[in-house]
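Worked example 2:
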Amino acid sequence: MLFRVLLGPDNARRINVTEALNSVSHLKNILQDSLQIVQDFEIQFEDPDFGNQLCNLTDISELPPDRAILKIITKVSEESDNASISSLDTASIASSSSSAASASSSSNVSPISIPLRQRENSDQWPSPFPIPTFSYDVELRLAKGNEMFREHGTLLDVPKDMKMDILNALCRSMFSYKTYQTRKELEVVAAGLVNKHPCLKDPSMGTCYDSWTTRLYYKVGNYRHKLGAAGCSEVRVNQKRTGDDSRNRLKKARRCEVNFLPDIPTGQTDVTLQNEKAALQEEMTKKYPNHAVVHSKMEQTFALRRKEIVDEEPPVAEIMRQWPALFLEEQVHMEFFRITGVNLKETFFSSLDEYTPKIIQLYRSRSGAFGEDLKTLLNKMDAQITNVMLQRKTAALRGLPLFMRESTDSFFKSCLDTDVDVDGDGVNTRGVQIGILTVTEDDTATTDTDANVRCFALIIEEQIVLDDLPDLPTAMAILFGLIYALNMKYPKELKYMFETIQKVFLRLDTKLSARVQSFRNKMLRC
């Protein structure tokens, strides 16, 4: 059965339920798992017997037979009301770790309201852009103007106050998606405006919206200045830069981060967040840290952590000292979700499952054009008789830089388990800025077989930041999450491999480089 689920005023999800529904509770469980809703909620549906008005769903038989529109109404308790816990009017989209959230509520840990943007789809900038509703008098004038345009082709003469109302409303809508817009994105907004209100078209030849694009260009600059004066972190971080230092890049979201540098939550200050950070550090010194406490305090200190990492750009060794919980495997997934709104583990592995057969087929068809390395990789994969699917996924990932004609000399490293140096100052990590270390068992290799892999470790800035990972796909996913969490650039020698993971596997951005676009097209044709 197909459902359109309304989570908020501008947030709707499409859910296809293939199994037979036997009760309302059954449907609630499915929606909780699919939409990651933590709070208790009620379901309303559009009842065709009453002109599609919303009614509470009390029996599963009340639903229409094939498809239905549902609305989620969360139950907000008095305690959570006092704590200002809310979520886009109706639903709370939580992290992928529901167990951590439930444990948090049972451990006297008070959650906090964090004003984070939510990603509604895989494309950060919508096209066509949803034009907001303007003030009542502006909408009246636009309605009459559109009618005159349809009847006589007459364009509306827009006075200054009306123009300012339109630009202000568009700015507020645009900044809900991102703080720094490109010229092309402004053109999408301008085009959407004149498509919805044709009476606003330019009288001159051209695209019919060039003048609106120019107005938006200057308006967003002024709007950013006002945001900076009001204390917006994502704007102020760039106002602090010295004008004569050309090496400083503009610090902004470049890889579809929806919460690149969030503001401090309402009711909190730097002092209170520093206290929470100190409590988190103390919790991490325990032999067995309380994961619910760690999760809650990582949520509370997200804005402070992003400010330190993005603004101050400390070395990874300092981040490990200040934020040790950030290097827990589950917290890497959580931090990636906070920054992008995308479930790293679920999205990466589902894409890997989907694409691995096509990628392997592509490697086989083109192996002759990529030298012996790709042939050797495929031969080793074919020789495996255990964990065949895992070996195929590993080969698909290891072959990516080879297919992209990139060097992996300083990325894929290996050593024996007797030679591992977790302090990161040994020969295995020396000179490695970003890499994956394969740890093999000593004395298990023969002339005909490879050594048994014991685990994988991640290297960043010559430091082993996380070890004891079970397989290469897991290591690759966690490493990619850390790149976002630490606000790191992709290594130049592997930029196409990481772009493929970001844009093809995780579907973060649809603008692909020519090389990655070629790989994607060839893979999908297999």
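The beta strands are 2-8, 11-16, 41-47, 53-56, 67-74, 412-416, 434-440, 453-460, 463-469. The chain has a mean pLDDT of 83.
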